Amino acid sequence: MVSEFENKVITCRAAVAWEAGKPLSLEEIQVAPPKAGEVRIKITNTSLCHSDSFCLSGKDYNQHFPMILGHESAGIVESVGEGVTKVAPGDHVIPLYMPECGQCPFCLSGRTNICLAISQTQNVGLMPDGTTRFSCNGKQIHHFMGISSFSEYTVVSQLSVTKIDKEAPLDKMCLIGCCIPTGYGAATKTANVFKGASVAVFGCGALGLSVIQGAKACGASRIIAIDINPEKSKISSEFGATDFVNPLDHPDKKIEDVIRGMTFLGVDFSFDTSGGRIDVMNSAFECVTIGWGTAVIISLADAGERISTVPFNMITGKKWMGCAFGGEKGSDLNTYVQSYMKGTLKIDEYITKNISLDEINEGLDDLRRGKCIREVIIMK
């Protein structure tokens, strides 16, 4: 399958973040052909994630403007550069913000999903050769998380893409690019929630619901969902939560005391997906039991923020840890695809509505205000 644009620059539409704290700007951009080891993808669908909103806010000092945000996505390979063997034109794919080279010390260790291969350039918004494939009005535009899916076309390293079943609907598969494995894997792989465990999940957005879904799959006996939005009670129970707690209903108590009061000495596992509040991260740690209690951080936090506790908590056996992408690798994602196809993994239930690229700023506002779980952009 040969693309009409092979080896040519593609002109398309994209939502460009020119500077921090400002709305995205719909622009006509140029997307260069893929170089050796690279893949150009026609993005069919991309959903809006809090990480995009967080980085646009400027609270993450590692981002480089101007840039094209977006990372939770799916699409079809348009063309490939020299030496690419992982995918071919026409393949349906999920771009990966967590690449997988299979050769660096971390990949070879078998102990982590973190890959070092292209981390230095990815972290500064560039392709592995230190350049960018995007331009707008003659100005170079940075990449984001190695993906930049708020564009009709993008270019990624072949290390940052995984092929999926063509029968799977891409408007649903885009959520497997971030929120679902990040939360589900945190419960099933990183924490390894045991059967009969008690679990507290702080925040009931897409990440929290994914943790709940994963904890339920592990056989947790009690799953306490915590959120200040009372409307999250119903959907959290639909995903598997057995209890719902709104901290605003307990103005005179710390939320960790409320959770401990619902259990014997605290929960076996807690997960912070609340969106980067340090006080919530600390509460999530404080509510786990001594002896073996494990608190897992998934949220991002503002630049310079620090978490803290007294050493005695560690001496008594409590554990504090974190994970990226739920500890999953790109090569693991077809398991999620097949689970969805078999009806054992919820995805449709996350999607509040579909929107167009022109509605992206309104969609981000909905996300910030808690008016949606996920809004999915349908690209033309």
Automatic annotation (TrEMBL):
GO biological process, one term: formaldehyde catabolic process
Domain Alcohol dehydrogenase-like N-terminal: residue ranges: 36-165
Keywords tagged on the record: Metal-binding, NAD, Oxidoreductase, Zinc
Molecular functions (GO terms): S-(hydroxymethyl)glutathione dehydrogenase [NAD(P)+] activity; zinc ion binding
Pfam family, one: ADH_zinc_N
Keyword Transferase tagged: no
Domain Alcohol dehydrogenase-like C-terminal: 206-330
The protein's name: Enoyl reductase (ER) domain-containing protein
